[in-house]
Amino acid sequence: MPGTLPVRLLLLACAALALSACGGGSSGSAAAAPPGAAYGIALSNLDIATSLYQDNQRTPPGFLSDPAPTGLGIVATHHLHSDELALATPSSFEVCTDDWNQALAWSEQAATQNGSYADLVGNSDTSHYFEFDRVPPGTPQQMLRQRVYLCSYLDRSDTSADVNSGPAGVLNAQPRTVAQMRDLSEYLWQFTGWNNYGNAVLASVDASGTAGPGHTLVIASLSQNAVSSGCDRIDVLGWRHDLDSSSGALQRHLSVLWSFGARQSGSVAVDCAAGG
Q1: Do residues 91 and 161 lie in contact, with contact meaning Cβ atoms separated by under 8 Å?
Q2: Is residue 206 part of a domain?
């Protein structure tokens, strides 16, 4: 995916021909479209930077929601990983099983780590995962939602939780649709480092190809003082998941679409490139 939008062909033609041939008498050039226009993003770079600094909206409207139970202070959600369970695997990945008893055993094992057992206060299941709700001793306002994928939905054993590119597992659920790929991409984002301050999903867009459904999340990510002292770098990333419809194999691709420098001044962003 390109890092910036190409200049419109019409403007290129106007630059080569007389103004009268292009139907206009003005010598001024048209304003460039925002870099994210190809993804339906109308925000300017400074709009993006301001949103990141204010941390007022991390996902766009309509993004998949996974609300926590009400009436609690802190709720954390976590998929159990192979390294937590001391499984002999070459990398850390989210485990799966279709056996509720196996999932419960893994939950119990993880709950006793570090010598502090978290009480099981509830459990549930969906077509995607088993969930075990636990409360640490003496902290009734805190809850950990432990989850284990159903292998019949998603098998992540060929992937690594430490990287954002490469194999992403096998989607076993049928039918394998564009809508399902969107839901999966948005769900997986919730368990990445991008679900944190200094990051925001700007767009969630279909990226289907000839091999099968695909989906791209366009993510803005802030790196403080990465340009210079007092000037931050903001990378706008494309995180794409592609699905092979026949096998269910998933691949992740991470690319930098464009980058720019900014800094915070009060409640607004200042363009570093403009000497701010």
Answers
A1: yes
A2: yes
Number of structural domains found in the chain: 1
Residue 9 belongs to some domain of the structure: no
DSSP summary character for residue 35: G
Q: Is the bond preceding 2 in cis, omega lying within 30 degrees of 0?
A: no
CA angle 87, 90, 92 (to 5 degrees): 65
Q: Which two tokens stand for residue 37?
A: 């226009």
Look at residue 13 and tell me if it is in a domain. Answer: no
> Six-digit token pair at 168?
């992403």
Report CA dihedral (179, 185, 191, 195) to the nearest 10 degrees.
-100
**What's the CA gap between 94 and 191, in Å, rounded?**
11
- At 93 the three-state DSSP class reads coil
Closest Cα to residue 235, out of 1, 3, 2, 54?
A: 3
- 99 SS3 class: coil
pTM (2 d.p.): 0.85
In a domain? residue 162: yes
Question: Helical H runs in the chain?
Answer: 9-16, 45-54, 100-111, 178-189
Instruction: Please give the residue range of the domain that contains residue 127.
Output: 34-274
Burial of 225 (0-12, 13-18, 19+ CB in 10 A): exposed
- Name the residue type at position 195: N
Contact 267, 54 (CB under 8 A): yes
Cβ contact 93:82 at 8 Å: yes
For 130-180, the pLDDT digits (tens) are 999 999 888 888 999 999 999 999 999 999 988 999 999 999 999 999 999
